[in-house]
Amino acid sequence: MPHAIRIHRTGGPEVLQWDSVEVPQPNAGEARVRHHAVGLNYIDTYHRSGLYPVPLPSGLGQEAAGVVEAVGAGVTEVKVGDRVAYATSPLGAYTEVRNVAASILVPLPDAISFEQGAAVMMQGLTAQYLLRRTYRVQPGDAILIHAAAGGVGTIVCQWAKALGATVIGTVSSEHKADIACAHGCDHAIIYTRENFAERVREITGGAGVPVVYDSIGKDTFMDSLACLRPLGLMVSFGNASGAVPPVDIGVLARMGSLYLTRPTLFTYAAKREDLLAMAAELFDVVAAGKVKIEIGQCYPLRDAAQAHIDLEARRTIGSTVLLP
Ligand code: NDP
Question: Which atom of ligand 1 is nearest to the CA of 41?
Answer without folding.
Answer: 26
